[in-house]
Design brief:
Substrate binds at residues 71-73, 103, 289, 320, 334-335. It catalyses: (S)-dihydroorotate + H2O = N-carbamoyl-L-aspartate + H(+). The chain is of the alpha/beta class. It has two domains: 9-61 and 387-444, Urease, subunit C, domain 1, CATH 2.30.40.10; 63-385, Metal-dependent hydrolases (TIM Barrel, Alpha-Beta Barrel), CATH 3.20.20. It has twelve helices and 19 strands. Helix 1 packs across helix 2, helix 4 crosses helix 6 and helix 7 (247-258) runs parallel beside helix 9 (295-307). It starts with 8 loop residues before the first strand and ends with a strand. Zinc ion is lined by residues 163-164, 190, 242-243, 289.
Length: 445
């Protein structure tokens, strides 16, 4: 039953954060009431006229997921992805907000471009789109972009990143950190010292040596994170570290947090699951920036996410057209799809493995990224993400089935999923954005 924006919904026998089943009423865009499981039917008192019912027996209710790191490719590479197709994939993956990275063409370095992306998101309507603004003009690393104008634009930008490129100039990075304090913004750094990765093709290590491919040392990432943590501490500003990929990076972030500095970090699903020995296949679907690392790094990333050193999971969803990806290794563009598989990978690596419960998943995939990105709090009362009065912006996961990922079945315009043919647990059954279903029965409404 597909309701319109005004329809109230009862989610029958749903399990909030994996807890005991209850009936949850969504009305007027908010979580309106919880009732004893199975007690709410068509004849129940107090239901708005036309209330729709969703049999959610066994489904886990989570706050709508928030992705701090999505490449939607529009404007410029609409053959790889559009705001419409990317946000469709997001909703099907349980996301209700995505932060759209600035490395489009033209680059999102002005109020005009970020407003264009924001409006495209509104028009598509699958989830909220929050544009990320570039730190430097044209991502060129030479001079600061119009950060203030983007912050005060209709798009209300709070996250700034040259992602794809590192802001490697220390003085520019300092200036950006100082500037964003005026509107409680955050600089999200793609940590890669460019002089240390010239020509790099994969993680520097045993596998690279065996394959004879130029290596990408962990220190190229760690050196920038250490420098930027020191800068953030020095100027008292907020630094967010994109796609942390090494054990050493986790150690540095742990140290920076212990200092009391405002440093947050994300890890991608693929860095939680995949390792660099996959490169032995020479399949460019495994080429990504930062590169897949070792099993020791994966273990440290999982431990860092579990103990909160790493604040959140972000997909780094990076669609690429066939000609940019299905080519020889050296010529292929780095990047992987992620929006429709992220929750499943986190379920496999963190929940089934006993490292996080569902409340922990809600924190790492919805609440923490919302705070870092400057979104309004999703909870009416602190401590619970799905409280009465909170926005009815939620997702429903069926945790039981394992499914084999099929690249052709994904909503993205691109096909570069590293999980094709792999079995992953869990599937999104429904997503609601302020009470309006964007996904029902696993399909876009
Ligand atoms: Zn990046």
């Amino acid at each position: 039953m597909a309701g319109d924006a005004g329809t109230a919904w009862v989610l029958r026998r749903v399990r909030p954060l994996g807890g005991e089943p209850v009936d949850v009423l969504l009305a007027d865009g908010v979580v309106a009431a919880w009732r004893p499981a199975g007690s709410t039917g068509p004849d129940s008192d107090g239901l708005p006229p036309g209330t729709a019912f969703l049999d959610a027996d066994g489904l886990i209710l989570l706050p709508g997921l928030v992705d701090l790191h999505t490449h939607l490719r529009e404007p410029g590479r609409e053959d790889a992805e559009t705001v419409e197709s990317g946000t469709r994939a997001a909703a099907l993956g349980g996301y209700t907000t995505v932060f759209a990275m600035a490395n489009t063409n033209p680059v999102a370095d002005t109020a005009g471009v970020v407003e264009q992306v924001w409006r495209l998101g509104l028009d598509a309507g699958h989830c909220d789109v929050r544009p990320v603004g570039a730190v430097t003009v044209g991502l060129a690393g030479q001079r600061l972009a119009e950060l203030g104008a983007m912050a005060t634009s209709a798009a209300g930008v709070r996250v700034f990143s040259d992602d794809g490129h590192c802001v490697s100039d220390a003085l520019l990075m300092r200036r950006a950190l100082e500037y964003v304090k005026a509107f409680d913004g955050v600089v999200a750094q793609h940590a890669e010292e460019p002089r240390l990765t010239v020509g790099a093709q994969m993680n520097e290590g045993v596998v690279a040596a065996r394959l004879g491919l130029p290596g990408w040392p962990a220190v190229a990432e760690e050196a920038i994170i250490a420098r930027d943590a020191l800068l953030a501490g020095h100027v008292g500003s907020r630094l967010h570290v994109c796609h942390v990929s090494t054990a050493g990076s986790v150690e540095i972030i742990r140290w920076a947090k212990a200092k009391g500095w405002q440093v947050t970090a994300e890890v991608t699903p693929h860095h939680l699951l995949l390792t660099d020995d996959l490169v032995e296949s020479y399949d460019p679907v495994f080429k990504v920036n930062p590169p897949l690392r070792t099993a020791e790094d994966v273990a440290a990333l999982r431990a860092g996410l579990a103990d909160g050193t790493i604040d959140c999971v972000a997909t780094d969803h990076a669609p690429h057209a066939l000609e940019d990806k299905e080519t020889e290794w050296a010529a292929a563009r780095p990047g992987m799809l992620g929006l429709q598989t992220a929750l499943s990978v986190v379920m496999e690596t963190m929940v089934i493995a006993g490292r996080l419960d569902w409340a922990g998943v809600a924190e790492r995939m919805a609440l923490a990224p919302a705070r870092i990105g400057g979104l309004p709090s999703p909870a009416a009362d602190a401590g619970s993400s799905i409280a009465v009065g909170a926005p009815a912006t939620v997702t429903l996961l069926d945790p039981s089935p394992w499914r084999v990922v099929e690249a052709d079945a994904l909503a993205s315009r691109s096909r570069n999923t590293p999980y094709a043919g792999r079995s992953l647990p869990g599937t999104i059954r429904a997503t609601f954005l302020r009470g309006r279903p964007t996904v029902l029965d696993g399909k876009i409404v």
